[in-house]
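User: Some background: our group keeps a shared notebook of sequences we're curious about, and every so often someone picks one and asks for a predicted structure to add to the entry. Today it's my turn. The entry only has the sequence so far, pasted here. Could you supply the structure so I can complete it?
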Amino acid sequence: MSVPTAVAVNLIGTVEHPEFGGSPFAVAMDGSPYLPVGDAGIVLGVQLGDLVFGLEGDHVAPGATLTHPDQAARHALTSFACLGNEVRVRTGGAAGATGRVLGKRGEAGRVIVVFEPDVLATLAPGDAIQVRGFGQGSSCPPELAAAGAVVLNCDPAMLDRLQVRLGERASFPVRAVVPSKLVGNGLGRPAQQWDLDLAVTVGNAERWSMAQLRFGDLIAITDLDVRHNAGYRHGWTTVGVTVHGASRLPGHGPGVMPVFCGPSELVDVRPDAADHRGVTSDRLWS
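Assistant: Of course. Here's the predicted structure to add to the notebook entry:
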């Protein structure tokens, strides 16, 4: 029997405007209030390959976040958009410019898209962005699929660009391998719509070989099954891409969007804490 072919869908999202409730302050894990700059909307001056830690911001993503005014359509936009998908600006001063999907975030659903800096600077909240959703539902090679392994949230073309190898086994280059006990926000949620926050700070990043963590890096998480709702499962490994930065909120931190999950005995990870190269601009646009 032949492997089913994934289909593409055209989606529309609007560039998000940051929002606050009655107070602008969030409360850090030490109990102190702070203003969470860079949490959603259009973030300037941060690019793929930049270090995640050391930014004066909260959940900072290198690009713009998209939403949809209809919540059901917003869930679909978040579910179908995949790493590497092409996006095109449909309205506003940057109309006609193209970019790519980097990932997604939780809350009510957000898609993170990246553009060249001059395009990003021209975008405005409310601009319409078309997303060519492709990759969700793609099949693993038969040997991995028979063991229950899945690829998710990823345009198939990105796997080769990231030097990922899928056959009888799965092989991934990663920045680090970390235990599932570090996962905070995102547990219990569907990984097709959410990322997973790693409760890692600048103070303990070295312990987990993440001091040089950069936007776009791949991270492997052991004993974690994200095929349905993300949760602990001994003997399973999830690999994801780093899509947003650190946070001072308890249970939050650098965000990793899952792109693969399978039995650990069939997953080979190649950690390189110093020189790992994940999703970069040239790999995303090549």
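Suggested note for the entry: The longest helix spans residues 71-80. Residues 144 and 168 are 6 Å apart (CA to CA).
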